[in-house]
Every structure is written in C-alpha cells, then in structure tokens.
Amino acid sequence: MKYIELRQKIKTPIFSLQDLKVAGFKVRSRQLSEWADNNYLIKLKNGVYLFADKKEAVLKEHVAFNICQPSYVSLEWALSIYGLIPETVYNVTSITVRATREYNNDLGGFIYRHVKKELFFGYNKITKNSQTFLLAEPEKALLDYLYLNAHKIKTEDDIEELRLNEFNLKKLNKSKIKKYSGAFPVKSGVKNILKLIF
Fold it and tell me: 32, 41 in Cβ contact below 8 A?
C-alpha cells in the first residue's frame, strides 16, 4: 500500500496496526516505520501511529486514550484541568487497570498508573473536536491522586505542600467524595487524608 492510499482510507488522526488488519488493509510494520522515519507518521507506541500533519490538532487526552485502553485521564493532568492545583503539568497522567507504564513520544510523556478494577470508575466520556477520551470527574481525580500518593501525605504540612486550590476545593461535591471514597481500601489512608483536607 502507498502512503496516499493510507491517507484516503484512514479518516481518523490516530490508528493502530490492529485497525488496519480489521479493515483488511495489508500494511507491513516495516512500511509504517519507513513512513515514520520520513515524518509522514508519528509513532506513539509500538503499533499505534498518528498522521504527522495532525500533530497540532490532536488533543493530548485523545492520544492518551489511544495509547492505552482501558484508561481515563486523571491525577495531576485532570487536577490541573479543574484548577485544583496551580502547577503546569507536562505529562498526561491516566488511570488504568493494566500495568503501570510510561510512554514518551513526539507529543510528550504519557503516564499510566494501575488501580484494581473496583476503583476504575468516576469518569465521563468526552468528545471534543471529534476526538474522544475519558476524563475523571474532579472528585475522582482528587481521590485517585490521594490514593496513589498516600504514602507521602501524612500531616497537614504534607497537605500544604500539595498546594490545592481552596476556592475550587469548595466547589467539589462532598457527598460524591464520601460515596466514592468508600470504594478505596481502609488501609490506604484516603479517608484520613480527606479529614485533613476538609
């Protein structure tokens, strides 16, 4: 298959080798590697590619969703979106039931933190500019962060170091936080940390 044929047949900015096989297109991995070397494609991870001319238009959250499924954007990236932390976040951080992994490509860093499937909830499906991804609700993004960083959060001073935006914290749904926190193991310490915050 020629590159121009690929462009005509694949309408999405991101595609995988599996997508090509399902569609019945015969493209060798080596051919895709050559197109990546010639800057027609950007390799996001083994077997997943982005058309290079779509780099500026593609959403990083959509890239994160396509690199690893199932996953939803959460942790620092989501907390930043909701204005709960002041820092600029450079790596897209997501939750997955798969193994903890990190991928780096031309679009940046994509970090995936593992949780048990019982904790894989509290997100919404977002479609923006025809690009789909899953995004944690603000309450769940906070809980995910506290759960995965509980070993570093023991005192009020530790809470201060998180630099959580108090104004936006007050906007969170407290009953939802209480309900969601019930799913986290007691020994994780999440409920104790919540007492320090609220």
Answer: yes
pLDDT tens-digit map of 41-55? 999 999 999 999 999
Taking 50 as the pLDDT cut, the residues of the chain under it are none
Distance CA 164, CA 108 (A): 25
What percentage of the chain exceeds 90 in pLDDT?
A: 93
Has this prediction a pTM greater than 0.85?
yes
Q: What number does CATH give the domain 60-197?
A: 3.30.460
Locate 52 and state its tokens: 């290079």
Give the pair of three-digit tokens for residue 174. Answer: 């407290």
Query: How many CB atoms sit inside 10 A of residue 120's CB?
Result: 17
Residue type, 31: Q
Beta bridge partners of 101: 112
Tally of residues, the chain: 198
